[in-house]
Amino acid sequence: MLPLNPKNHFSLSKFLSFSLFISIFFTISHSDDFSSLLTFKSKVDTSNFLISWSKNNDPCSSWLGVTCHPVTGRVIKLVLNHLNLTGSIHPLIHLTQIRHLSLHHNFLTSFPNFNSWPNLKHVYLSHNKFSGEFPPGIYRLNRLRRLDLSYNKFSGQIPVTELNQLPHLMTLHLEFNSFSGSLGMDETRHVASFKDFNISGNNFSGKIPNWLSKFPVTSFTGNVHLCGYPLRSICPSETVNSNPTVMNTDPSQLSFPNQKKKNLSENMFLLIVTIDAVGVMLTVLVITWCCYYRKKKNQEKEIYNKVKKYHDSSNSSSLYHSFEYGHILKDKKSDQFATMVCFEGCKGFSKVDDLLKASAEMLGKGSVGTSYKVAMDCKDVVVVKRVIEKLKKMKDLDGFLRLIGGLRHQNVVSLRAYYSSKEELLLVYDFLPNGSLHNLLHGNRGPGRTPLDWTTRLKYALGAAKGLAFLHSYNKTKICHGNFTSSNILIDHFGNACISDICLHLLLQMPNSSNNGYKAPELLTQNNMNTNQNPRKFSQKCDVYSFGVVLLEILTGKIATSEGEISLAKWVQRVVNKEWTWDVFDFELARYKEMEDEMVALLKVAMACLVSSPKDRPKMIVVEKMIEDIRKTENR
Fold first, then answer.
1. CATH of residue 371
2. What does 331-396 look like in DSSP terms, one character per residue?
3. Number of structural domains the chain divides into
4. pLDDT tens-place string over residues 435-460
5. In sequence order, which residues have a C-beta less than 8 Å from that of residue 571 and are 6 or more positions away?
6. Is the dihedral of CA 97, 101, 106, 112 positive or negative?
């Protein structure tokens, strides 16, 4: 054994003391992080969605949405989206090492500042209730790359100077707030690093800086006092007097027919000058109006001829071929001629002209209009639903469509854009290639059919329940679907069930359907009392009843209305009340007899949704939980 050198002994002791200090520091910081998270949970998690946040669980491996650093154990990422969180995020200021903060689609109301999070790189706080001025301290976030504060209630001016000091900022989303002021940002900022920018739906004013003009017009729409490219409005400083000679003419130099009369009084002289000035102004106004009207007519004719020429020279069938483009041009009073309102995810088009030039094929005619599959030049494929039915006289049709366009969920078909005129409505949705649940259940029942297995059916039932539960709880708006059927459940690229045609019954004067298989009893009673059904009597509990009918379709393989007059719901209730038999289930499920308990459990969920009294039907969030439990039982 080597002798211990006193000098080495001192160095070793010093090293061990330093290591002990570092260990104690990280342990204390680690504990502070989780104490802050527990405080945050106690204040904002009123629905108890963060049930995994318990002192008995390891926060870094078991807590929902929490990611820790592998060495220090400090919290570096927090993702808590769509969890109905309500209140202030002030307790999170102690997470000094956090780099990724995502709390979008909640109901959070109070935002402290950015001073406590100097290491933030990604901030996603859209679709909340934050208010007040732009959070201070943004200049300290030198590593910030993406900032999304859209769809909140922020107001006041944005800190232009501080934003210019962030060299790595690539994304800035501030749309649909109440920000104001100018965008006179420094021309010297690192323009190359700025890739995504949107301030639409605010109160900004003044000229758009040149370096921001590279972004599309949709990044600036809704700011009525903004001007400059790419907007159509020209800034006042760029206009010139159309007739400077007339405007600068000295009235004393004007000649009059009665100059020979030397005895004209001063009052008569002023009267003549005033009349001449008014005449000149009226003449200028009339000429300006005529020029504007003629220019507008020429633009309409030019666009019409351009689209018609494209159609005549194209070998493919375009959307223009499917319906008259001139029909859209009839709405001459529209301020958004040949433009569309676009939402998140809208790519490849920004006006009606782009859609009409793309190749299209008709998918079919449904209860709310005709649908077309449209292939854009950028290889994206969308569905354009053309509605010509009489639109309801709603006070805020545009606001209602914007509400639908803001719905984003894995099990909801997203509305990407819309065009509304006096005579028709165009709705642009994502194209889902795998068809509807109705076709998968009832289509091609003959030889060669590939039946749906039990696991897939249960997955579709759970996905549809999640989509409808999200709709019913969205932003506390109490909106409902209104026409929930198996035909309105589409299957996406990943095999997820997505609900479509949301809330269209509120927009249209829908005729009474002869197929009442999906309608709740209270709606049938209304129809008997009044032939013109009032959609405002529709409630979320009516959606729950329709969902119960869809579950019966999944279980029995039968359509909502049988060949006779009895509905599917009444038929199942009679069979169950008489005597239980396997014959109530689809014969394609006969090979899954070991899953009979799960099928019976799902049938009980359907029967709970189909009770006659609306108040006794469960909420969709409860139905979703019941189906989730059945699926967990199946996977054991």
1. 3.30.200.20
2. -TT-SSTT--EE-TT--S-SSHHHHHHSEEEEEEE-SS-EEEEEE-TTS-EEEEEEE-SPBP--TT
3. 3
4. 899 988 888 766 767 788 999 999 99
5. 558, 562
6. positive
Note whether 421 and 441 are same-domain residues.
Answer: no
Specify the 3-state DSSP secondary structure of 375: strand
3-state secondary structure of 567: strand
Which pLDDT value is given to residue 307? 53
What does DSSP say about strands 370-375 and 359-365: parallel, antiparallel, or unpaired? antiparallel
Question: 87 CB contacts (<8 Å, ≥6 apart)?
Answer: 43, 44, 108, 109, 110
**Whole-structure pTM value:** 0.51
Alpha-carbon distances, residue 443 vs 451, 523, 557 (angstroms)? 10, 29, 10
**Of the residues 211, 227, 243, the one at which a domain ends:** 227
Q: Which residue has the tokens 């459990």?
A: 601
Q: How many CA atoms lie within 13 A of 177 on its CB side?
A: 29
> Of 399, 431, 463, which residue is a domain's last?
431
306 contacts: CB under 8 Å, gap ≥ 6: 353
Check: CB of residue 340 under 8 Å from CB of residue 415.
Answer: no
* Residues in the chain where the model's pLDDT stays below 50: 1-2, 4, 7, 9-10, 15-26, 186, 188, 190-192, 240-263, 311, 314-316, 324-338, 512, 514, 531-533, 535, 563
pLDDT digits (tens, 9 = 90+) for 208-248: 888 888 889 999 999 999 998 888 888 886 554 434 433 34
Q: How many CA atoms lie within 13 A of 219 on its CB side?
A: 17
How much is the pLDDT for 395?
Answer: 56
Domain annotation covers residue 332: yes
**Within 13 Å, how many C-alpha atoms sit on residue 181's CB side?**
14
- Find where tokens 């609306």 sit: 614
User: For helices 596-609 and 568-578, what crossing angle results, to 10°?
Assistant: 120
Provide the domain limits for residue 103.
28-227
Residue 450: count of CB within 10 angstroms of its CB: 8
406: number of Cβ within 10 Å: 19
The whole-number pLDDT of residue 105 equals: 92
Nearest-CA neighbor of 90 among 122, 50, 43? 43
Tokens of 567: 């509905």
Q: Are residues 476 and 595 in the same domain?
A: yes
